Amino acid sequence: MTNIQNMKPVKTTYNRRSFLKSSALSGGGFLLSIGWLSSFKSIDNQSVTNLPPNWNELNGFIKITADNVIKIMSPNPEGGQGVKTSMPMIVAEELDVDWKNVIVEQADLDTKHFTRQFIGGSQAIHQGWKPLRNAGATARQMLREAAATQWQVPVDEVSTELGILYHKKSGKSAKYGEMASAAAQIPIPKEVKLKDVKDFKIIGKSKSNVDIEKIVTGKPLFGIDTQRDGMLIAMIVHPPAMGLKFKAIQNEDVIKKMKGIKDVFPIKIFNEGYEKTFFDTLNFNEVVAVVGNSTWEVMKAQKALKIDWEPIQSSTENRNMLGRKLTVKIPAGLESSTEHTEKLAEMLKKPLNVLRKDGDPEIAFKNASKVIERTYTGPFLAHNCMEPMNFFAHVTDEKAELAGPLQKPEFTEQALSARLEMPLDKIDIQITRLGGGFGKRSYAHWLLEAALISQKVKAPVKLIYSREDDMTSGIYRPAYSATYRAALDANNDLVGFHVKAVGIPESPLFPNRFPAGAVDNYLAEDFTIDSNITVGSYRAPRSNFIAAAEQSFLDEVAEATGKDPIEFRLDLLKKAQEKPVGKTNDYDPARYAGVLELVREKSGWEQAKSTKKLGVSAYYCHDSYAAHVLDIEVKNGEPIVKNVCCAIDCGIVVNPDTAKNMAEGAVIDGIGVALFGKMTFTKGVPDKNNFHTYRMIRMNEAPKKIDVHFVQNNIEPSGMGEPAYPPVFGALANALYKATGKRFYQQPFMDFMG
Amino acid sequence: MAKYNLKINGKIRKVDIDPSTPMLWVLRDHLDMPGTKYGCGMAQCGACTVHLDGTAVRSCSLPVSAIGKGAITTIEGLSENGTHPVQKAWIEHDVAQCGYCQSGQIMSAAALLKDNPKPTDADIDNAMSGNICRCGTYLRIKEAIKTASKN
Asked: Quick one: pLDDT at residue A114?
């Protein structure tokens, strides 16, 4: 029974106009708005006529049938991070219903009703927490008011439990469904009460993935499974090397005569002069499309196509990076990894852009008793989502219908609107389950390609990238390098810290992260090297490299001071807590220390560190804290990870078993990428194009055991898609050092096991 | 083009098709059975795993002309309603993250258990190392196989 006395009142701000404004400005002002107002209008609106007659729309998130089935729309794309289950759980909690009666549906792109409808930054739960709770609590409050009116009793005497309204004094009760129509007529309450954390019945209790039964029976959930009457299959051919562009098709006639082939033609993805946004990254603006009846016929034609390519000229590109205007240089030339390595090393010798300086680092290093300097590198990485890039499109003169896997539908819709010169309200994007995203599906030039192909052939089209197209078409994790220096005084105290980081073509540096704030003399510099290799977000962008470098370095510095690596970090965090240096440190030292203390306890670190080959690492990113201890041995030159202990602080854990699954996945993926992940280039050509050359971790290489522990607190939840990933790399490097006596400075580590 | 009478999930399905077409695309494009997934097209990732006469095969590299009288089982035909012990174990362990590779994983696991009802950890590693999961659900897959082996 949810007791009113335990609930905390919050204001429900539902002014749609102010919500839209604040959301557009900063992305931070939309917490109290779900577009309830607009959806309430639709009760009397024609737009509800396409819903089953017995559905009563309460608000953008919730529908309740007369027979008490609760339907909750999950607003965000699902790519394996579990939000299709965990976001509705939050709504259901405040609505106070039985989870067994809840039906979850994936919402299409609908910017009128939903905010922040995308995957990125592990933010769905963090930013959705308040609006989702408010949505559930508001609906519940309206149901109570409806019941109070009907029963002629004070609303405070109406309680709820598992989707049933009660008036205990009179013994009256009603299912939510019975009051749903009346509740829809109740004015939206100005204030609703949220449950006390200790009264949660759904949040904090593991719930199965709502799609698990469909997944295990092979139901069509993914974009690549899309089927429509009269649908054609399309593939593209892009230049074989970065630095080349389309010139001419040599054998158009031959291809058009191939069996099942309808057409072959070049398409230009963006118009000249278009100001690209953050998510419009693409390498090849002109590609050749081949369209036919079936995938195999089109694959054969794709292989038979002969195309002339020519070198690109150096150019500049104006980009609007979420409001920050940038001019990006795109150099001509066919780049190779050997040159990239040289350029990174060369830049690290020069003074770079200073992003943060505390105290007097120069003097600290000059007067140091001991200076430690180490350089780390990480290569380009391909995302390798298991579902290759694809999109369905049916574009006519009147409208555009699209379906597929997409991380940033709202932004991609804007790009498509600009390209087709079609207003947004004529474009419908159905979001399918993503067969992996990892950042790659934030950039969706394949959606535009599908739309342009459909427009040209005047038919519904499914565009499929082959694995080779997927792996060689650009958008990689950038290549990075960083040099770290530490200054120790005569007492072996860390008195100076200096990080220099460069990337092609993106810097990996976060100047305000630990150990910034814990060292009196601190300097952080970075630089970006131009390239025509296109890059993009990759699970925990930048952190996925810089955490590996920093946490490996701290291990070595700890060793030089003679301290235990956990104790060394905790001492620094204590200083950051008690006497922080600077005011812009972007982590909470107490929570950071909390995961280190928890992992120390749970891994049995103190007892095992002298006998086992243990490596530790901790990191903070995307609002959550994670620390790992890896226990490894090396046999026949191959590392075997025997056990992994993870300690995580993501606040309230909404769906514990899924959160655990995310941490396990981050550990396994992280170990795989640290050991094997690498994309290199020879004269602009990606050296790997499928899984026979791009090594991925497999079951026999996965850790034997992973234990995941969560810090128990009542802090508002933060995400789990990324934070457990970055610290894996350093923990592995540090454990490998214990097992082999060798430090690992360059990824992938297997290249240096020797 | 050639005509084939294929035995798929216990039914005869007729197709008139280019003999070089891999079974993967016969299933997905011509028979409306999208449960079998495309991952690499070169038998490296296992997403397209089906059974041919009870043995796990990679359908992306198996031309339709090579099937003959062989019986194909896909994820859609593994059980009536997702009640195969492997499917039930996958649900029990809530294995999936993105889920894309899982039909191939399940088909590999079901073939393993048919031949070897009580596999050791090493047996599981050997049988399953042809299936890639980028999300990293390997430990849950292993646990689910052990659960299924008890049933």
From this structure: 61
